[in-house]
Every structure is written in structure tokens, then in C-alpha cells.
């Protein structure tokens, strides 16, 4: 299978490069950071360059496009404008969908659990109320809408909190948490935000397995099987790695008013499991992440 990956140097993208290249022909792209793309069939690309994007489809003829590229900052820095976020997260997504339709390719789009209303309760299903409270989440939802308006050969993955160790330049909060605790330094962790975390290793593996299934026109909650707060996730890490839980400092969302307030976007993953895509238990994923850290 020929697979075109956007955001190939990102947190998830680099793991997809590793996993998918084992049995597929991949073309992975990066923008500013190379990451591990240099080890694979890759090229540097500004996705807003629609002429270059079309050339890729003409020359590579992908069977599947996995679109992970996005501006994902919850709080924008001064170097990124709102217009750029819309261009990358919405307009590029729409153009990719159109190219997929034209060239008969399936599109796998990584959306986010943050599109859900974070106050509606636990284990939300795919038809739960959608109220994105950040520009990132709003534009990811708009990307979903654009794809569905264009064609039906898609899989939209509402991706939960991804955790693990980033490769090369990429990093995650879990990695920061691990390093602080390993060095016996205190770390602040939310006790009142609940998610369905999934390791980046497990996410890449499940996406690989997903490509063997006959799935299209589906929005799927893509996370782990357990609802935990960020604090509980940190506690699990302490239990497994032997770190001191006394280093964990409990904080609440109200303590950081500059962040969008999302209390509970834990997800029901019955639909994911209905395709025989069964994520590992949280403790298993944490153990695997630690064992495979780079």
C-alpha cells in the first residue's frame, strides 16, 4: 500500500513513519523540522503550496493519506497568526480531501477529543455535543466538516491525549513529567481534567491495523480504554516507574485561567473496538513507553 503522511516529523508522525514503513511504501513530509523523516522516503513541503501538493498525488499516487499535520498550540505564540491556523488546519485539510477524492485515496484525519463539550459527562460517544473552546479544537472540527462535505472515503479519528516520548525534537507533557519525577523535582498536575489517554506507540500501531479494515465514512473516538485525570495518569507513572508521588502537586484548571477550560472529554471507544481495534490497558501502555524510551 502507498501511504502519504503529512506532519511526518511530528509527535505521532515519526512513530507512523517507523511502523508503516515496515510493510508499506510511504512518502512522509515535514515542514521546519526533519525529525526521523530523513530515514525514509520524504520531502520538505509547505502544505499550503497546492501546486506541489498536487504533484505529490500525480507522482506518488497514494492509496491512503494520513493527515496529522496541524498547528496544535492551545495558546498561540506571537509568531503564529489566527489566519495561519485556519489555513493549515482548515483550508489545507479541505484541499487534501479534494485531492483524495480526485485520485481515489482514503483519508485518515487525526482530529481531537477537544471538539467535545467538556462539561457533559464521562465516556462521551461520537454523537455527543460538540463545543470546542480553543482555536485549535475549533479548526480541527472545521476540518472534519470540510472532509465530510467533500467525500465519504475517510476515517476521522477524534484523538485522545497522546502520551509517550517524542523522537528527535518532538516532546510531550508526559515526557516532561517523567524527567521531572526521575530527577526528584516537583511537578504540577491537573486533578480536574479527565481524558482517555493513549500512548503514541499504541496509536501508531492501531492506525496501522486500521488500514487493513474496510472502514470509510466513519468518525471514531480514538483513545485508551480508561478515564483518568492527568493527576491519576501521573500517579500510574509513579507506581510503574517507582517515582515519589509526593512530588506531584495538585492543581485545578481554575489555577491556570489562560488555558481553555476542558473538564471531561473522556471517550466511549466502543465503535473503535467494534472494528476489532482494541487498545491496551493504560498500565500496559505506560510500561511499554518506558521500556521503549529513546
Quick description:
The chain starts with a strand and ends with a helix.
Which terms would index this structure?
alpha/beta, 294 residues, single chain, seven-stranded parallel sheet, Rossmann fold, 36% helix, two-stranded parallel ribbon
**The CATH C-level class name:** Alpha Beta
What would the principal axes of the Cα set say about the shape? globular
Largest sheet: 7 strands, parallel
Structural domain tally: 1
DSSP helical segment count: 9
Report Rg.
18 Å
Percent of residues in helical segments? 25-40%
Distance from first to last alpha carbon:
28 Å
The CATH architecture classification is 3-Layer(aba) Sandwich
- The computed structural class is alpha/beta
Strand order of the largest sheet: 3-2-1-4-5-6-11
Return the CATH topology. Rossmann fold
What is the oligomer described by this structure?
Answer: single chain
Q: Mean pLDDT score, rounded?
A: 95
Topology order in helix (H) and strand (E) letters = EHEEHEHEHEEHEEEHEEHEHH
Report the CATH superfamily: NAD(P)-binding Rossmann-like Domain
Weakly predicted, low-confidence segments: none
Tally of DSSP β-strands: 13
What amount of the residues lies in strands? 15-25%
Can you tell me about this structure?
By secondary structure, the protein is of the alpha/beta class. The protein has one domain: NAD(P)-binding Rossmann-like Domain (Rossmann fold, 3-Layer(aba) Sandwich). The chain contains nine helices and 13 strands. It has a seven-stranded parallel sheet with strand order 3-2-1-4-5-6-11, with helices on both faces. Strands 7-10 form a two-stranded parallel ribbon. The protein has a two-stranded parallel sheet with strand order 8-13. The longest helix is centred in the N-terminal third of the chain and has 21 residues. It is globular, with a radius of gyration of 18 Å. 43% of the residues are buried.
Amino acid at each position: 500500500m502507498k501511504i502519504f503522511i503529512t506532519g511526518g516529523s511530528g509527535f505521532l508522525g515519526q512513530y507512523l513513519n517507523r511502523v508503516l514503513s515496515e510493510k508499506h511504501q510511504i512518502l512522509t513530509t515535514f515542514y521546519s523540522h526533519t525529525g526521523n523523516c530523513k530515514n525514509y522516503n520524504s520531502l520538505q513541503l509547505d502544505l499550503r503550496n497546492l501546486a506541489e501538493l498536487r504533484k505529490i498525488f500525480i507522482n506518488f499516487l497514494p492509496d491512503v493519506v494520513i493527515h496529522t499535520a496541524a498547528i496544535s498550540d492551545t495558546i498561540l505564540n506571537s509568531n503564529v497568526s489566527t489566519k495561519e491556523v485556519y489555513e493549515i488546519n482548515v483550508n489545507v485539510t479541505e484541499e487534501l480531501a479534494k485531492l483524495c477524492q480526485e485520485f481515489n485515496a482514503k483519508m485518515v484525519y487525526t482530529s481531537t477529543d477537544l471538539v467535545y463539550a467538556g462539561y457533559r459527562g464521562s465516556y462521551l460517544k461520537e454523537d455527543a455535543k460538540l463545543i470546542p473552546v480553543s482555536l485549535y479544537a475549533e479548526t480541527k472540527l472545521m476540518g472534519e466538516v470540510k472532509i465530510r462535505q467533500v467525500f465519504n472515503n475517510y476515517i476521522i479519528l477524534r484523538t485522545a491525549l497522546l502520551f509517550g516520548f517524542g523522537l528527535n525534537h518532538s516532546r510531550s507533557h508526559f515526557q516532561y513529567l517523567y524527567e521531572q519525577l526521575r530527577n526528584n523535582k516537583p511537578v504540577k498536575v491537573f486533578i480536574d481534567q479527565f481524558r482517555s489517554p493513549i500512548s503514541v506507540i499504541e496509536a501508531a500501531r492501531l492506525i496501522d491495523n486500521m488500514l487493513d479494515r474496510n472502514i470509510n465514512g466513519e468518525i471514531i473516538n480514538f483513545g485508551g480504554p480508561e478515564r483518568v485525570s492527568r493527576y491519576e495518569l501521573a500517579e500510574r507513572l509513579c507506581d510503574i516507574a517507582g517515582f515519589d508521588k509526593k512530588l506531584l502537586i495538585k492543581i485545578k484548571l481554575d489555577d491556570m485561567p489562560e488555558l481553555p477550560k476542558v473538564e471531561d472529554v473522556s471517550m466511549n471507544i466502543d465503535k473503535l473496538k467494534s472494528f476489532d481495534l482494541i487498545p491496551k490497558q493504560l498500565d500496559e501502555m505506560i510500561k511499554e513507553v518506558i521500556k521503549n524510551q529513546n
